[in-house]
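Lab notebook page, bench 4
Experiment: in silico fold of construct C2
Operator: M.H.
Input chain length: 417 residues
Purpose: comparison with the prior construct
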Amino acid sequence: MQYFRIAKNTLYQATARLASSFIGFLITIFIARYFGVLNYGDFIKITSFVAPFYIFMDFGMNAIYLQLDKDEAKFNDFFNLRILISIVIFIIVNIVALLLPYNISLNTGYPPVVKMGILIFSLSFFSQSIIYSSSVIYQKRINYFGYMLAVITGSVVNFLLVLFFISYKFGLNHIILGFVLSGVVTAILSQLLTGKKIKIFKIDINFAKKIIVLSWPLGLMLIFNLVYFRIDSIILAFYKSAKDVGTYGLSYKFFDFLIALPLFLSNALYPMLLENQKNFRKMKQIIKSYMIVFVLTSIFLIIPFWYFSSFFSLIKKEFIDSVLPFRILLLSLPFFFISNFFQWILISFKNQKYLLKIYIISSIINIILNIIFIPIYSYFAAAIITGISEGIITLLMGLKLVGINKILEKEYQYEGN
């Protein structure tokens, strides 16, 4: 029965992602065809700059909340804490955006239209904080049906808004506004379907402090995870033209869908991992079974998407250059699947600080390599370095799990004797 619940709710998340990604692909095609590779590059600059800051709304707090609040009594405080954080991050991001450089002669950096787009898109912090908060209820109850409905509805609204703005020849920042408004729809519906009533501005300061203190290792880990994960697009924007940014941006847009897939299964598995972390035999059985699932799924996905990438030119001929970086990224897919699974196992064993160290090391390596090689090899370097970084992370996580397994085996044998 428990395995059925996990499979069912993994399906709910996957359905939401597949539907939203399919609609997202259509939106990407419309935007790319409408703007062309240069202006699409500006679109990527906006989204690549703002999206990494979503991690501050996440900050690993859902995992800690699930450990602390067994009966959802503190959800109102948890919700308002996220809203408060989103306000602070919104202000910081837009101050930083004003200081971003722009070289008009080389068309590198961040022009005024992009900075305005950053301001508009950063409004999505508020809706994203609500979506993150409501998702913890779905995760706790192991019932993602409401989440699926909210995401699909928001995606449809996004598509209709983008189609409307493109049909009437609106500019880039109207397209960005469409994304923000659809996020509001997703957030409102996602929260309503939890059935939880919220009292705005009511927050237990002591509980909020406890969540932040316990979350910081995991939060920082996620931040460094995103640094190495997204820094290549930002470095491309500094060193290369909008054409290169647009070319890599399209390839990464499709790859981003694939690397989100293991998270759905991990989300459904996490409550089970928490329940069985003291049951060595059961935990070992779960890890072995799902490890096979993660590995085989990642390998299975490579083949069809390898050939699918040849159709990028149908979007617009100039996007044929996106095929090679996408295929390079595709080869690293098993690393992303395995590392995601390893990450949540380590979190269930409260190894957040070790994960933080891993992502600090990988981020430093990633930044150094990107700064050295992107000016020379552009997005080809970015794609290769992404795979190398994820390979290092997977190896370091695996070594830690081997060590944990040896310790637990000794304890299990000792108790058996």
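Observations: Residues 127 and 187 are 5 Å apart (CA to CA). The chain has one domain: 2-416.
Next step: discuss at group meeting.
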